[in-house]
Amino acid sequence: MTRDAESTRRRIYSVALTLFRERGYAKTTMRQIAKEAGLSLGAAYHHFDSKQAIVGAYYAQQTEAHEAAARAAMKEAKDLRERLGFVMHTALDVRGADRELMRELAPLVVSAEETLSAFSDESESLRARSIGVFREAVDDPAVPEDVREVFALALWGLQMGLLLYFSRDGSPRQRKTRALVDGSLDLAVQVVRALALPMLAPMRAQLTRTLQDADLLPASR
């Protein structure tokens, strides 16, 4: 992509997000985005073939910002619980200014019919990157090796639920969500430590197989 093309793409993206935030995603059209960006409709479609594609770029930017913030914070963590807290809280931090937009986009994330669904083939790379941050966080002696993939996936699922709650949390500075994060992680760490008991190895294996059968984890080699 040429420098001019990249500049045009960034302009469309910036204008679109401004309109999404001011008018709402549903009420914004590609024609309006093109007009505000000073482009023809065809030129706008050349860079983004739909509003969903712009939202996809937005999610990619959020994922990148969260990866950077979480990894920087984890360097200061003293233990597993603290690392997990940094990952979860930075996920809220990078999205804090866009809670209203998050609420409107939520149906796209949870709908099985949408390409932006958290479980769609199109979102696989972003999903893998998000789970990858948790995989780094749970790389800890306190977590049995045969349950780390399961734990990382479970934490990603927890994060998705917490983000939905966060988008609708009207408490001051979303304190309810922050408390829910901390309480959930306290419990999660206790559960995973209990799973480390040798007598629970069959349960860990069964849990892994169940998630593999659902294609939520790769099959064992």
Describe this structure in words.
The protein has 10 helices and no strands. With 221 residues, it is mainly alpha-helical. 70% of the residues lie in helices and 0% in strands. It has helices at 3-23, 30-37, 41-47, 51-74, 80-93, 99-110, 124-137, 148-167, 175-195, 201-213. It has 2 domains: 1-49, Homeodomain-like (Arc Repressor Mutant, subunit A); 55-214, Orthogonal Bundle (Tetracycline Repressor, domain 2). Helix 2 packs across helix 3 (41-47), helix 4 packs antiparallel against helix 5 (80-93) and helix 4 packs parallel to helix 7.
Short description:
Helix content is 70%, strand content 0%. The chain is an all-alpha fold.
Biggest sheet features: none
> Tally the helices: what do you get?
10
Q: Structural class, please?
A: mainly alpha
Give me the strand/helix succession. HHHHHHHHHH
The CATH homologous superfamily name of the largest domain equals: Tetracycline Repressor, domain 2
Overall number of strands: 0
Give the % helix: 55-70%
CATH-level-2 architecture of the largest domain: Orthogonal Bundle
Residue runs with pLDDT of under 50 for 5 or more positions: none
Measured between the Cα atoms of the first and last residue, the distance is 39 Å
The total tally of domains equals 2
CATH topology of the largest domain: Tetracycline Repressor, domain 2
What fraction of the residues are assigned to beta strands by DSSP? under 5%
Shape: elongated
Rounded average pLDDT: 93
Over all CA atoms, what is the radius of gyration? 20 Å
The CATH class assignment of the largest domain is Mainly Alpha
